[in-house]
Known about the structure:
By secondary structure, the protein is an alpha/beta fold. It has helices at residues 39-47, 110-113, 117-130, 155-166, 180-184, 202-215, 232-237, 281-286, 292-309, 327-335, and strands at 2-6, 12-16, 26-34, 56-64, 76-80, 93-97, 101-103, 147-150, 172-176, 194-197, 222-225, 246-249, 264-267, 317-319, 343-347.
Amino acid sequence: MKEAVVQPDLSVKIVDAPIPLPKADEVIIKVAVSGSNPKDWKRPTVGGKPLNSGDDIAGVIHQVGSNVVEFKPGDRVAAFHEMMAPGGSFAQYAVSWAHTTFHIPDKTSFEEASTIPLAAMTAAVGMYQRLEGLPLPWHPTSKPTPMIIYGAAAAVGAFAIQLAQLSNIHPLICVAGKGIPFVEGLIDKSKGDVVLDYREGDEKLVKGMKDAADKAGGKVEYAFDSISEKGSFQNICKVLDHQTGQITLVLPGKDYSDIPKPIKHSVTYVGVVHETFDKNEFQNATGSKTGNLEFGHIMFRFFSRGLQEGWFKGHPYEVVPGGLNGVSTGLKDLKDGKASAVKYVFKIDETDSS
């Protein structure tokens, strides 16, 4: 098979590699479309090592491991590949654990499906495994629950809006830039949701968030910062309640000392749905045998049902021409900030076979 190996300078080498074989709880997917995420350029650049850094898979089941009962060859699926593991999505065949693989209906294109796995699960982990007290979508709240979503036009932020709508979390105080028209199509202004433009400057943005908070009763206890840099969390914390507020962020290893105490802050790392050693605090408090892996299993099947029933959808996308040969261009454009309210995806059958 052909596989794209991303170099530290974001050039790409297309290599011949054997089709992987599944472990007992894994599936092998013939990749129709691979999605992409900012980490796909950050990993090889920061780590300095070449790798197939893609993790968003959409395609057809090729082979299943001996323990897998939910999938069979020919099934249309999307999947979240385990980050940094062999068998990434920038290839003709990729590997996924069965519990982070989910069926997609015929009406959902492979392009749309490829936008979902990493970003939607990041939103879900942040909202329901990191922020304490937000209602799950199948137990929506009936009480006003103001929440700030910073970076609302980016895929993680936009999926957070979709989940918040399903949980009836309102009013949403959303922050975006060029993608504001897209965000306006996701929010519910009849329930007090607003979208604010960070490009108008910190002072005006903070005032806008405070005004929206005042209309919601003056107390905002929840914030999802899908940007986590360039002043985002500093602005949020000027509005978030300083006694009971919670904020979750997405960039690991950053200095978050500007967050005032006792605001509770956490970092959302989507890789926990693949890791048994990283128990969440609910597990630590109760000794439960279930946690992040089971959460990932359940939420991916929730996304599958939502696609079928029509109350969940993927993110807008742009197909980068050339299949695997286009990965370098896509990742460089992603690094340069050229993507606004879209995800770059790659149709693998467009790859030059020479």
